[in-house]
Amino acid sequence: GNYISYGVREFGMSAIMNGVTLHGGFIPFGGTFLMFSEYARNALRMAALMGVRSLFVYTHDSIGLGEDGPTHQPIEQISTLRLIPNMSTWRPCDAVETAVAWKCAIEKKSGPSCLIFSRQGLPQQERSDEQLSAIAHGGYILKDCDGTPDAIIIGTGSEVALAMDAARELEAEGKKIRVVSMPCTEVFDEQDQEYKDAVLPPSVTARVAVEAGVTDFWYKYVGTGRVIGIDRFGESAPAGELFPHFGFTVKAVVGAVKGVM
Q1: Which ranges does the record mark as transmembrane (predicted)?
Q2: Strand partners, 143
Q3: pLDDT digits over 178-200, tens only?
Q4: Is 6's pLDDT higher than 90?
Q5: Same domain, 112 and 206
Q6: Span 44-53, pLDDT tens digits
Q7: In angstroms, rounded to a whole number, what is the distance separating the alpha carbons of residues 135 and 90?
Q8: What is the chain's mean pLDDT, rounded?
Q9: Nearest-angstrom CA–CA distance, 100 and 106
Q10: Does any domain span residue 122?
Q11: Is 1 among the domain residues?
């Protein structure tokens, strides 16, 4: 295929992608910072409304962007993209989830997809073949325990590693913890009730969701549980300072889990 240099034209890029899709013969993808999806929003909405296969790739997805500061740090953007009907919004936690997200986006013929990535490097997560197959369901059990969990931690993207570290610390204290990675909530919501209940058993109400974005979106999954997120604009500083400053630490997740148990 060919590359098109659009310049600083996020709406133009996205609208032209829709036109290329409608013309046929190509599956277009275009990339920019997630914050600048705001400039392209009408074209994204039209892609979903028309049901065209445009692939929107967004990077620098959170306060992890760092020194560029709050003007460039997404807060509400991931949740608002998830609210667009017929849009699949993927926020993978590592290269494996990224590959699955790309495959699902290519195979979805009925509408567009957003693939959302961090700026910072993220650790690779270990998986069985069964877990690998389950990624395409949008949400799956990344780490489990024997028997019924005492609590469930739900994470996406860069916060999955944080959820895994918190789970290990809680397990060392004798707690039974399940970690659910949910790279695409829209796809997870489309699964049958049996699958969703297997991942998030209704009997386990002690739940904590962790995502570096607004918190309101996650209460439909945690119910009376807790959400660790950010409901204010960010700051200009290195990512390694911003995450603990805004409460994204193992200690905070462990404390939240203990608080709901």
Answers
A1: 15-36
A2: 179
A3: 999 999 999 999 999 999 999 99
A4: no
A5: no
A6: 999 999 999 9
A7: 11
A8: 96
A9: 10
A10: no
A11: no
Q: pLDDT category, 254, cuts 50, 70, 90?
A: very high
Is 200 a domain residue? yes
Q: Return the active site residues.
A: 10
Compute the distance between CA of residue 19 and CA of residue 231 in angstroms, rounded to an integer: 36
Residue numbers of the domain that contains 226: 130-259
| Structure tokens, 114 | 């957003």
**Residue 173 belongs to a domain:** yes
Tokens of 135: 């990624």
Q: What is the pLDDT of residues 116-155, one digit of tens each?
A: 999 999 999 999 999 999 999 999 999 999 999 999 999 9
Do 137 and 127 meet the contact criterion of CB atoms below 8 Å apart? no
Here the CATH number for the domain that contains residue 47 is: 3.40.50.970
Residue length, the chain?
261
Indicate which CATH number applies to the domain containing 220. Answer: 3.40.50.920
Sign of dihedral through CA atoms 199, 188, 180, 107? Answer: positive
- Name the token pair of 132: 């690998």
- pLDDT (0 to 100) of residue 1: 59
Tokens of 62: 């959170």
Q: How many domains does the chain have?
A: 2
164 and 110 assigned to the same domain: no
Phi-psi region of 168 (alpha: psi -120 to 50; beta: other; left: phi over 0): alpha
